[in-house]
Amino acid sequence: MSYIIESFRQLFGSEPRRPDKSDISPEAKAVHLYKKQNPFDKYSFEVAREAHTADSKKWRNRRWATLLVVNLLFVVSYYFDIQLLEGALTASRFMGFHMADLNSALQVTLAFKHMVLNLVIGTATVFVLWLLLGGRTFCSWVCPYHLLSEWAEKLHLYLAGKGWVKDHSFNRKVRSLFYVIFALLALVTGYTVFETISVTGIVSRALIYGPGMALIWVGLVLLFEVFYSRRAWCRYVCPIGITYGVVGTLSPVRVKFVLKDCHHEGDCRKVCLVPHVLDMTVKGKAVHTEVDVSADCTRCGMCVDVCPTNSLRFDIKGLGKHL
Amino acid sequence: MSEQKKPNKPVKRRLSAKQVEQNRREFLRTSALAVGVMGVSLVGLLPAVQGKSLALRPPGALKTPLDETEFLSSCIKCGQCVQVCPVNAINLADLDKGAGVGVPFIDAREQACDFSCDGLQCVLACPTGALTHDLDYPADARMGFARLDNPRKCLAIQGKGFKGQARGPDFEGILRYDDVDRWNPIPVADYPYDLELCDLCMRQCPIEIRIAQCAAAADEREQNKDRVAQIQGNECPPKHAIAFEAFGDEEGGVKRMKPVILDGCVGCGVCEMICPPEPPAIVIDIKQDVDHMRGVS
What we know:
The structure holds 2 protein chains of 2 kinds. In chain A, strands 1-2-3 form a 3-stranded antiparallel β-sheet. Helices cover 55% and strands 8% of the residues of chain A. Chain A has helices at 2-11, 26-37, 42-52, 58-79, 102-112, 117-133, 137-141, 144-162, 173-189, 193-197, 199-209, 215-227, 232-237, 239-248, 267-271, 302-306, and strands at residues 85-88, 91-94, 97-100, 253-258, 290-292, 312-316. In chain A, helix 4 (58-79) packs across helix 11, helix 5 packs parallel to helix 9 (173-189) and helix 8 (144-162) runs parallel beside helix 12. Chain A is mainly alpha-helical. Chain B has one domain. Chain B has 10 helices and 10 strands. Chain B has a two-stranded antiparallel sheet with strand order 1-2. The longest helix of chain B has 34 residues, at 17-50. The interface between A and B is large, with 57 and 46 residues. Chain B: Pfam families: Fer4_4 (PF12800), Fer4_7 (PF12838). Chain B: Keywords: Iron, Iron-sulfur, Membrane, Metal-binding, Signal, Transmembrane, Transmembrane helix. Chain B: The chain crosses the membrane at residues 27-49. Chain B: This is 4Fe-4S ferredoxin.
């Protein structure tokens, strides 16, 4: 239950809860104490990090492959008219079976105030799909804008490293505000206002139906992310992330943090799109010996890739012991 | 936002002056972001509010022009209608159309809907009902209404014939020619005409073609229309869409004719596409449809 509550808090923009001494389980306390008394040996840590580098792009490669395959499936289906995956990311048919993006379906339903059967089928299918696969997994494993944004982020970090740009943060609660406003706007104006600026929809359609002027908007958002604020769209604006995040609170697919293996050097938080979800990796903050990362996590696996000591790993609840 | 709430929270440590300043800046930045994003998205809404977003939509989108609002609200912008159209008549609106980035429209002059799919594939493909499923046959569509926009350009009114490719050799539009291949539309440029009096708009009207087929089939089988519809799987249109009316005096043996738009017109745009003069004599008026014309709506 506390996982769901904490997930919701973080999804809607609250800072991770600062654990009280009394919250920390005796087992976790023992690990914290042990780590205090036996500081990590820098040398052996470096060895571990060296040994890890060979493996360090495993999940990224899998993820990029998945993202490209899904999006290219749309493109190829249309281009060669093989009718495998028709439509775009907002709504599609996979081998004739309806699928609908949850946020687009929500916006359309609020605006149209009516839901036809096909949309109900499509929404239910996609809901179950991401309930199983982990909600915001959509963001990093499917959303084509995520990939562009990932590259923009690399550029941003390079420029920031040179001292040429500075990262400006925003208050994360603004994303919840956008979510509410866009929902209300759809309801009141009877028009899916968010879809006009949805970079996910624009990029998806541009891939399938050819580029258009709407890509200028995507370019502007990317420039904003490169020169002003790291990953701003995904972190502070996009309501699609919240919708899938809510679905993902009940998902069995999670990234799990194992306290005893962690060296608290913080590499994971440096690569993370949503670093607040990794707050428990800060020394002394983990309340249990194993903690699930909250549902705002996109399950991109970058922290899993970067962690030299394997203290962050993918986990499927209920199946963990059988894997 | 959160900055205003923060003092209410049980904050153990007092914030330093620097942190307070940082928080203040973040709050201002966040407010600017909120205003900026909302501003951009509302600009996109503006043309819809002003009613400037009207365009010829695929079959099923419009019953009356008032439905434009409903169409925009219900379209999920997936382009499945684009994908199924055999003549590629449907395009998705870009940013320059303002409202409805990603909503489908038809540029009839470039490529009209000639119903070559027979079964209204776009309507069947639409996942949200933006193209209403109340439509069963082409004749039920209400996309708009043809209008003789520029009568002086009309070759028939001038009493002229037409010879050659309707829109010239470079025109890329395609059309289903039943006598060539019912299922595979061919380029209009590959189908030259030789007409004593130009009647292309009526000759190529899908509704008129269908009515002629039904009549022929009915004659042949001496059976009623319903039976023919059953056999052919595509209902016979109940009303004519366009007819030619003689007018004026015959000058030197040349009869002059005028195209007249009738109740059966669904606004598919084939007449606009096929009309040889530039600009075309006949266009689709999207603000009209047959029910509207009769004052039913």
